[in-house]
């Protein structure tokens, strides 16, 4: 059975798309990421135009993140105060990102730029996360506990203006840092169709030094609002949100996210980071191969 997508202007197998949504939703709940860094490349691999994949994926991330965040809300593992500052920065980043995205569409180079950007960001983030995970796993328990105590209250963040106490995260830092981090993630969300969790989670752990138990839930909380803003802006400014495709992804993503949360709480944080790093590097390798291979057919434009 085939379903025609009006914005993407192509037929798809709905069962394949639903399965893709469920698989990425599962990973979203397990790792605390929106899943866009996996779903957007998967949609591109499936043949969806990159601009439509970016715009539509943001809506799927909203639903899967809501599902995952509700599960963490029951466990009281969300720092709403920290999440509020992350959302504030993310909203500003999303607005600027959508405007830049619109300009790039007019140049005709948006498809290549999306693929190249994914290769760069995924290789950097995946490599750093894998290195840190391996190093952490090799340390003894005493060393890890000592390291965690030492990093819990970073002096340079507290030295920034307007420092305040984040009780759920047991931190005393300036909100400038989470606002700036949210801005970067909002920019990436609007330009690459990602929730930003693959950057947000390690940044919250290693830059903001938040405790692991609230990182995943807080990440999903901010992803909900940032991707919702991005979806509305892309639909209004660029007309790249395909509702039919989004509904298929949502139907699978919500169920998958709930299952992912149940599996994720049973794994150690170090193991979760290592698995996420391997997934990021795997997607990066596939995108790099696609960029390196010659196209199946060549096009010649006459009459210029």
Automatic annotation (TrEMBL):
InterPro entries registered for this protein in UniProt = TM_pro_TauE-like, TSUP/Inactive_protease-like
Subcellular localization:
Cell membrane; Membrane
| Tagged with keyword DNA damage | no
* Membrane-traversing stretches: 15-38, 82-101, 113-134, 179-207, 214-237, 243-265, 272-289
UniProt xrefs under Pfam families: TauE
Q: How does it sit in the membrane?
A: Multi-pass membrane protein
Which family does the entry's similarity section mention?
Belongs to the 4-toluene sulfonate uptake permease (TSUP) (TC 2.A.102) family.
Q: What is the name of this protein?
A: Probable membrane transporter protein
Question: What is the organism of origin for this protein?
Answer: Hyphococcus aureus
């Amino acid at each position: 059975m085939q379903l025609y997508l009006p914005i993407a202007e192509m037929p798809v197998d709905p069962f394949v798309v639903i399965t893709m949504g469920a698989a990425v939703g599962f990973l979203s709940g397990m790792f605390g990421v929106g899943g866009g860094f996996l779903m957007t490349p998967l949609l591109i691999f499936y043949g969806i135009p990159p601009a439509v994949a970016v715009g539509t994926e943001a809506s799927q991330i909203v639903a899967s993140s809501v599902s995952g965040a509700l599960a963490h809300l029951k466990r009281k593992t969300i720092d709403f105060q920290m999440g509020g500052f992350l959302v504030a920065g993310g909203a500003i980043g999303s607005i600027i990102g959508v405007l830049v995205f619109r300009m790039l569409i007019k140049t005709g180079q948006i498809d290549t730029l999306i693929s190249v950007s994914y290769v760069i960001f995924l290789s950097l983030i995946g490599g750093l996360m894998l290195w840190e995970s391996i190093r952490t796993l090799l340390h003894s328990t005493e060393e890890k506990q000592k390291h965690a105590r030492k990093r819990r209250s970073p002096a340079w963040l507290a030295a920034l203006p307007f420092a305040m106490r984040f009780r759920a995260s047991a931190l005393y830092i300036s909100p400038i840092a989470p606002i700036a981090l949210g801005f970067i993630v909002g920019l990436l969300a609007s330009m690459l169709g990602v929730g930003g969790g693959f950057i947000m989670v390690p940044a919250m752990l290693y830059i903001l030094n938040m405790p692991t138990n609230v990182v995943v839930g807080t990440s999903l909380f901010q992803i909900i609002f940032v991707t919702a803003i991005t979806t509305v802006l892309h639909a209004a400014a660029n007309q790249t949100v395909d509702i039919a495709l989004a509904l298929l992804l949502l139907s699978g993503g919500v169920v998958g996210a709930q299952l992912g949360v149940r599996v994720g709480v049973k794994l150690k944080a170090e193991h979760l980071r290592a698995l996420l790093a391997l997934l990021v590097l795997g997607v990066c390798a596939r995108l790099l191969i696609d960029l390196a291979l010659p196209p199946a057919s060549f096009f010649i434009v006459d009459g210029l």
